[in-house]
Amino acid sequence: MPCHQSARDSQQRAIENRSREFVDAGNFGKRECDFGFAIPDPTLASQVSGPWSVVRDRLKMFATIYLPHFYLQAAMRYHPKLRAQPVALIDTAESKVSIIQLNELAEKAGVAKRMTPSQALARCLQVAIRTRERAQENVIDEILLQHAFMLSPFVEATGPGICTVQFTDNRDLTAKLSRIIAKLAKCEIQAQAGIASLPDTSFLAAHLARPVLQIDEPKEFLAPLPTETLAIA
């Protein structure tokens, strides 16, 4: 088997595995986007058999920048010591207070979403229970949008910790997004991004990215994804 085919198969398997890890439909509503669908120019028909790079340069391309565990990131941003211990987040504005997000250490300790704080502490006495910090969430959202506008003048605030970009220049998109991800990291913000010819596809790709995933073949990318993954787009 050629090396490039083996590498692509390995990447596809990794995507399929990650798609089963990230999905939590309760955290994201149906994808709503002000951008129109990216419909290829009719003149591209004669170029479809050519290199993808040629066709892609004539398509509308989109990127979704996604901040995983957005609420938890905001609550922990200025508390670096918390990164070394289990942390669970609650929203005191809810009628029934329960865990809404948690870090990997808390998950490994047996804490789970929808547990009450007392249940979480019963599973792990070391877990730090934090509350949402809405002011910090607003700050991070503003920083995210500022960085997104470095890529294009066409930016949508898609949801908390999520924005969508429509490119005016399709060259070197992965490199451009990688630089933005690095800039956000310097602001103590973890981000990942997906790139595709449709905003919904870029949205899905962003959830699976480590940290940037560009989809050149949407059908091959979408075909193996489980239904629960596709449902969030």
What is the H-and-E element order?
A: HHEHEEHHEHEEHEHEHH
Name of the CATH homologous superfamily of the largest domain:
Reverse transcriptase/Diguanylate cyclase domain
What class, by secondary structure content? alpha/beta
Helix content: 25-40%
- Give the rounded overall mean pLDDT: 82
| Ends apart, CA distance between termini | 34 Å
Find the count of extended strands (DSSP E, 2+ residues).
8
How many strands, which pairing sense, and closed or not: the largest β-sheet? 5 strands, mixed
Indicate how many domains the architecture comprises.
2
Give the topology, please.
Elements: H1 3-22, H2 52-56, E1 62-66, H3 70-76, E2 87-90, E3 99-102, H4 104-108, H5 117-123, E4 128-131, H6 134-148, E5 154-159, E6 162-166, H7 173-186, E7 192-196, H8 199-208, E8 212-214, H9 218-222, H10 227-230
Parallel strand pairs: 2-4, 7-8
Antiparallel strand pairs: 1-6, 1-7, 2-3, 5-6
Helix pairs in contact: 3-6
Description:
With 233 residues, the protein is of the alpha/beta class. The protein has two domains: 3-70 and 135-230, Reverse transcriptase/Diguanylate cyclase domain (Alpha-Beta Plaits, 2-Layer Sandwich); 86-126. The protein has ten helices and eight strands. The protein has helices at residues 3-22, 52-56, 70-76, 104-108, 117-123, 134-148, 173-186, 199-208, 218-222, 227-230, and strands at 62-66, 87-90, 99-102, 128-131, 154-159, 162-166, 192-196, 212-214. A five-stranded mixed beta sheet has the order 5-6-1-7-8. Strands 3-2-4 form a three-stranded mixed beta sheet. Helix 8 (199-208) links the parallel strand 7 and strand 8. Helix 3 packs across helix 6. It starts with a helix and ends with a helix.
